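REQUEST ID: PR-0412
SUBMITTED BY: lab tech R.K.
PRIORITY: routine
TASK: structure prediction, single protein chain
INPUT:
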Amino acid sequence: MSHTAHIRSHRKPRRNASKIAMRAGVAGGVLGTLAVAGASGSASAAEPVTQTLELPTLTADMAVQVAQSAEVTQQAAANYQLQAERDAAAAKAAKEAKADLADAKKKAEARKKAAEAARKAAAERASRAAERTTLSASASASTPAAGSGASASVSTGSSAATGSAAAVISFVKAQVGKAYVSGATGPSAYDCSGLVLTAFKQVGISLPRVSQDQSTAGTQVSLSNLQPGDILYWGGAGSAYHVGVYVGDGMFVGAQNPSTGVVERPLSYDPPSGAVRVL
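STATUS: complete
OUTPUT:
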């Protein structure tokens, strides 16, 4: 036996095994409870974090979709506007092309009419020249010798004109020297029928415009019975190609051609085919 065994303070008390087990169980239970609670708390704390992370992702996707939709809509609107502008430009171009075509047709028609008028005038002048050559040849064959007087078929009386006849004669003589222009009726130029038309208009008499109709406008008179103011014509009555005005004393005034213009000439210069009287 130890020499200190009898001292109490130096003895180690014995632990009861059951108590130790109980204490271990309590401790284990407390630790388990804490672990469960911690895990539960961690789970509870983690759940909001998971939701918070998902919400920004969903919101960003929606924003991208909205932006893409807006971009598509804007592009479609721009395409519609561009198409509308193209359609408007095409319609304007078509309208201008139609107007240009109509204008070109009018100009072409005007040129065609002018060319036709020039052709007819040239043909009329050529026919008139040929007819005059024929008439001149006939007149030369039937004209008496020099000094024996004028042809018996043409009167060269010098009876004085009065009234309307005097006014017509005064007018045509005042036009001598002016230009010959096909289709002109004065005041600076005339063609043959234009001069006769305008002259008789001075005394209130309205005549047809062309020589063919003027050659039948009044009463047919014989060339041997001419009076001042009678209308002379060359060619057939109703188909005359030239007209003039008899002014007395064997003279006439007429717009002859572009070379001579309006002239006063003796009947022997270009003997007429016939005459009509409207005064």
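NOTES: Residues 30-112 form one domain.
REVIEWED BY: pending
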